[in-house]
Amino acid sequence: MPRPPGHGPGYEVKRQEIIDQAAALFAKQGYAATGIAEIGQVAGLAKGALYYYIGSKENLLVEIQDRVLRPLLTAARRIATLDEDPVLRLRLLSETLLDIILARLDHIWVYEHDYRHLRGANRARLLRQRREFERIVLEILTAAMDSGAFRRLDPRLAMLQFLNLHNHTYQWARPDGPWDAAFLSREYCATLISGFCSPGYDVADLEERVAQFRARVPA
């Protein structure tokens, strides 16, 4: 059967290109302030052709959010189930989150600022995914407390500290800047763990354990 019009080999390539272009526009101008005509102009498509690729402007916002959350949740679920101590898992989760932030700065800006424009099932799904990630962070932090590595503190407050330290990185970081995700994660976790850890807990070998894990379990 011949391919339907518009669904040739380049269809998905073009659609992904449009999502990238929309993310850049939304990050610069805001979702609400960006018209569909502007997106079409940047994409080099008339309005009808643009809708053929994207369906609706809200669909673009869904795709942008999904590009952040899908890989983040996939990695977070895997890290949560590792047979490793919770402090190491927290460090791995930190670097994973920062990898995604640095790789998708425009998308992260839109993810943080414009998710409120989603409606109905799209908004509910996004909020459910966000809560799942928060729950994974909270469970790892609680496990660190249960193991004695971290002192007893409010798990939700600890989770918010972790998220606040990481989630604002997009406001100033640059993918070609001097600090990559691994460096930032080392520094962020050194700060967090020194505040969270129990008296006498030795964090000195954490980075060595991270390196040993990477050697055993290549990305």
TrEMBL record:
Entry coiled-coil feature ranges: none
Keyword Transcription in record: yes
Top-rank lineage group of the source organism: Bacteria
Record Pfam families: TetR_C_24, TetR_N
Limits of the HTH tetR-type domain: 12-72
Annotated signal peptide: none
Protein name: TetR/AcrR family transcriptional regulator
Species per Swiss-Prot/TrEMBL record: Amycolatopsis rhabdoformis
